[in-house]
Design goal:
Elements (H helix, E strand, L loop, with lengths): L1 E8 L4 H12 L4 E7 L4 E6 L5 H11 L2 E5 L2
Antiparallel strand pairs: 1-3, 1-4, 2-3
Helix pairs in contact: 1-2
The structure holds copper (II) ion.
Copper (II) ion binds next to helix 1.
């Protein structure tokens, strides 16, 4: 089990949180997604270390922008 936190731009409300949580949650290997709206971060828990590109694509699919790793 590992976690990684990413900075995500563009999230403004609970709908955004739901959209990002749903899309990132579909990425193979992801076991949990925790969005911090005010902090503009998404923490992804997974069995193996995640491929950042896969997370980035899921965030973009939801309509937001992954701007990098956070913390
Ligand atoms: Cu929103």
């Amino acid at each position: 089990m590992t976690t990684a936190t990413y900075a995500v731009a563009g999230m403004t409300c609970g709908h955004c949180v739901s959209a990002v949580t749903a899309e990132v949650g579909k990425v193979p290997g992801v076991t949990a997604v925790d969005v911090d709206l005010s902090g503009e971060t998404v923490t992804v828990s997974s069995e193996q270390a995640m491929d950042e590109q896969a997370v980035r694509e899921a965030v973009e699919e939801a309509g937001y922008t992954l701007t990098g790793r956070s913390g």
